Q: What sequence folds into this?
């Protein structure tokens, strides 16, 4: 199928959302695409994870309808890979479709990063309602404004740190730590909060100190005399930031 998005007249609540349908069954892809276009959505389609990844390199999608059982990379594996990718692929909402009905299979899909799960066969109206619900939830979250400190700009919406326009390599833990500090907008953040910032992945307060030291080596000219990432003895840490006017440069 062509990747060119199409649209049929539909209800105003669709608001031009662009949906990617990923299913190895051509008949299901066609039926879903026609139905969703009639609902007022833009629709593109892909036969497998590889083709879907190629579509996503060229276009940003508001939601992915993803089959679990596909030849090659499974839908669950593809969803997990997306959640480890850069933005905007990382945050794309995912509705999984599958013929599997066991609880363990549903949990697997949700753990992989799916936002919702619908078992085949399904009523098209239920599919439409679930899609509308996911899109409403996604649109409620306003992207956090990028914050500057010195030559650095951090974009919370995509967990990306730039220095003079060039990306700075961060580990997953460092990104989470920096995001937590930025979200407090210069206020003091306790070591305890930073240690427990990821539910189910609590770390020791000592490990937070180690992470802070590593992060300082990446953002401070002299980590022993930090200009931006300060220690507030007996309380925690704070990052001195300033908001970007106009959302910052396009990168």
A:
């Amino acid at each position: 199928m062509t990747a060119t998005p199409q649209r049929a007249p539909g209800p105003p609540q669709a608001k031009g959302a662009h949906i990617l349908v990923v299913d190895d069954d051509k008949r299901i892809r066609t039926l879903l695409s026609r139905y969703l276009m009639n609902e007022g959505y833009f629709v593109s389609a892909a036969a497998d994870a590889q083709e879907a990844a190629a579509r996503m390199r060229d276009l940003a999608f508001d939601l992915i309808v993803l089959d679990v059982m596909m030849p090659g990379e499974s839908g669950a594996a593809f969803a997990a890979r997306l959640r480890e990718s850069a933005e905007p692929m990382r945050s794309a909402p995912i509705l999984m479709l599958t013929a599997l009905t066991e609880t363990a299979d549903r949990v697997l899909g949700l753990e992989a990063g799916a936002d919702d799960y619908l078992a085949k066969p399904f009523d098209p109206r239920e599919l439409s309602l679930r899609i509308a619900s996911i899109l409403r939830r996604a649109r409620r979250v306003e992207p956090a404004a990028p914050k500057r400190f010195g030559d650095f700009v951090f974009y919370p919406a995509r967990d990306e740190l730039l220095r003079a326009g060039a990306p700075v390599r961060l580990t997953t833990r460092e990104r989470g730590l920096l995001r937590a500090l930025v979200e407090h907008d210069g206020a003091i953040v306790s070591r305890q909060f930073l240690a427990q910032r990821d539910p189910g992945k609590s770390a020791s307060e000592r490990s937070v100190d180690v992470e802070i030291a590593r992060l300082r080596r990446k953002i401070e000219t002299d980590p022993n005399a930090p200009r931006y990432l300060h220690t507030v003895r007996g309380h925690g840490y704070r990052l001195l930031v300033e908001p970007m006017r106009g959302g910052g440069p396009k990168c």
Notes: The CA atoms of residues 62 and 92 lie 6 Å apart. The longest strand covers residues 18-22.
